[in-house]
Specification:
The protein is α+β, with helices and mostly antiparallel strands and 377 residues long. The chain is built from six helices and 26 strands. Helices cover 17% and strands 42% of the residues.
Length: 377
């Protein structure tokens, strides 16, 4: 194998593929990056940990095609240190990979390619979606993914597909985040286990969804999504990420979200968020935060007699009866940070029933359900 490539492009591709290389690989070959140079002057780098893969392709000048495996972290760090103004040459030299840029010449040992697992096949796309829109929705919803591996179903984001809408949902039992966005299902059909799904629900691990959000956050292009019975795939030109799906499904969240309310309060998102940030350093995970909601303001109280405590207030408009509701401050802050808008609408049934939060008029874009705390005294 021998090729020459723009150093900046190579650095970006190696960092992309490294996202699927485990920090503590269960087998030495999984610490490697698979490098493939083809006759069509394309370089493809790939990382794989049995559960997810990341592939990056870039144009280059291929003198000799070939495939090999090298230590991924070392290659990534070496290329990152090279001057971006000069191209990099990769060439197989015996059993080593010679990496050269300008006056720098590095010899990297190769790993046994025959021991590297086969990368998962890429199914046909299920549909397309605006990349930046999906990134935004995925980030907001994934904030509610549980971190307790004892409940695997709650560590995922559920994608529900229909003819026009892609719905994302996640819950850690204390909050439920839901987002909707338009998408275009494909008419391409597949067969067997790689048949792309265009309807129904698929549960995708939260870390795979966060990876997808990182892929798409800076793109202005449409992304191709593939859902199968076993895999989730997101593709943009030159970049692909795959992940295994989870078994099971989330509770029927549509039945959990109330539609009738006794009180609806609207306040500044940033103002309430900043107020909560004043109190979170004072409070432990189980300490309550009280919101006294009246017409004109929300008075915020936090702390107990044997700990630090404080109070503050923010302006608000109330439609309905005044009431006091108690939250876990960290969960409320996490939810408020996902609201995309200058104001947040908080809708309540009773002080102990689930509370609905969203930007006014945008509940169909993103909404969150948050459980209040029931005080014992």
């Amino acid at each position: 194998m021998k090729l020459t490539i723009d150093t900046d492009k190579l650095a970006d591709a190696t960092q992309w593929a490294m996202r699927a290389v485990p920090a503590n690989p269960p087998a030495p070959v999984l610490a490697g990056l698979r490098i493939e140079a083809t006759d069509d002057n394309t370089l493809t780098l790939a990382g794989f940990d049995y559960y997810r893969s990341a592939r990056a392709s870039e144009a280059c000048e291929v003198a000799e095609p070939g495939t090999l495996l090298v230590p991924g972290r070392v290659l990534t760090d070496v290329v990152k240190s090279f001057p971006k103004s000069r191209p990099t040459t990769l060439a197989l030299d015996g059993t080593d990979l010679a990496v050269s840029c300008g006056t720098a010449h590095i010899q990297l040992p190769t790993l046994p390619l025959q021991d590297y697992p086969t990368l998962p096949a890429l199914p046909a796309p299920s549909g397309t979606v605006e990349g930046a829109v999906l990134a935004d929705a995925a980030t907001r919803v994934a904030a509610a993914v549980a971190t307790d591996d004892n409940l695997p179903v709650l560590t995922g984001v559920q994608f529900t597909l229909d003819d026009t809408t892609l719905r994302l949902a996640a819950t850690d039992r204390y909050a439920f985040h839901v987002a909707e966005l338009p998408w275009t299902p494909t008419t391409i059909k597949g067969r067997g286990k790689n048949k792309p799904l265009t309807e129904g629900s698929v549960l995708v691990p939260g870390d795979a969804v966060r990876d997808a959000a990182r892929i798409l956050a800076s793109t202005d292009q449409a992304a191709e999504l593939s859902f199968t019975a076993s895999h989730f795939v997101v593709r943009v030109p030159g970049r692909t990420a795959t992940g295994s799906t989870l078994e099971g499904e989330l509770p029927n969240y549509e039945a959990l979200f109330p539609t009738e309310f006794e009180s609806v309060v609207t306040t500044g998102t940033e103002a309430l968020t900043d107020t909560l940030k004043h109190f979170t350093p004072l409070l432990g995970k189980g300490d309550p935060l009280l919101l006294d909601i009246t017409d004109g303001q929300i008075a915020v109280r936090a702390g107990t007699d044997d700990k630090a405590r404080g109070r503050d207030q923010v302006d608000a408009e109330l439609d309905g009866a005044p009431l006091t509701v108690v939250f876990n401050p960290h969960l409320l802050l996490r939810t408020l940070q996902q609201i995309d808008g200058p104001t947040v609408q908080i809708s309540l049934v009773t002080p102990t029933k689930p509370v609905l939060l969203h930007a006014p008029g945008q509940a169909d874009r993103f909404k969150a359900l948050l459980m209040p705390i029931r005080l014992t005294s």
